[in-house]
Amino acid sequence: MGVAAVDDDRMLLDGLCSWLERVPQLRLLAAAPTVDDLLAGPGRRADVVLLDLLLRDGSAPASNVARLCAAGPRVLVISTQAAPAAVADTVAAGAAGYLTKDHALDRLVEAVTEVAAGRAVHSPELAFALAHDDRPDRPRLTPRELQVLLDYASGLTLKATARRAGISPQTAKWYLDQVKDKYRRAGRPTFTKLDLASRVREDGLER
């Protein structure tokens, strides 16, 4: 599987190249300091691009993700620290996950494999970033509201959603109404099940 990296930390890139040489199922196609440089070379053919969240060229993280995704690769964002709003923006732009750079190689390989298979990578760092994203258009949902939203938006019926949460269908509907109201007050009107599924994707809430 082809992997590429965009990072302007030369030492980290060298370490990453050395790391990945020990992983036979991954092949590092390219490493570049900017998205422009990567897309101009063989890195654009990678299955997965590891993208540093904040680059010294001042490029916007969400824009970087969108450009890479448009070129074909899937994107796993990595960083030394969580910047909640920026992380949330990258997920909304199409990033398949987020990890900090202090993970062991086996965790990185696992994440890359998941991303290449078309799945999202959920990590404690991503959960922290999303939970602390305080932009006004992002409603703050309670754990139970989030549970009901995710189950219902995933395709379950209202009865199945209620059963999984251990509550009545009427209570599940009440939680969904609360979620819709919070999105409405955040300036993002939400009425139908399709709307709810769209909000889940937009806010990077998929499991």
TrEMBL record:
The modification 4-aspartylphosphate is found at D52. PROSITE patterns: RESPONSE_REGULATORY. Residues 2-116 form the Response regulatory domain. Gene3D superfamilies: 3.40.50.2300, Winged helix-like DNA-binding domain superfamily/Winged helix DNA-binding domain. It comes from the Bacteria. InterPro entries: CheY-like_superfamily (IPR011006), Sig_transdc_resp-reg_C-effctor (IPR016032), Sig_transdc_resp-reg_receiver (IPR001789), Tscrpt_reg_LuxR_C (IPR000792), WalR-like (IPR039420), WH-like_DNA-bd_sf (IPR036388). GO terms for biological process: phosphorelay signal transduction system; regulation of DNA-templated transcription. GO terms for molecular function: DNA binding; kinase activity. Keywords: DNA-binding, Kinase, Phosphoprotein, Transferase. This is Histidine kinase. The keyword Lipid metabolism does not apply. SUPFAM superfamilies: C-terminal effector domain of the bipartite response regulators, CheY-like.
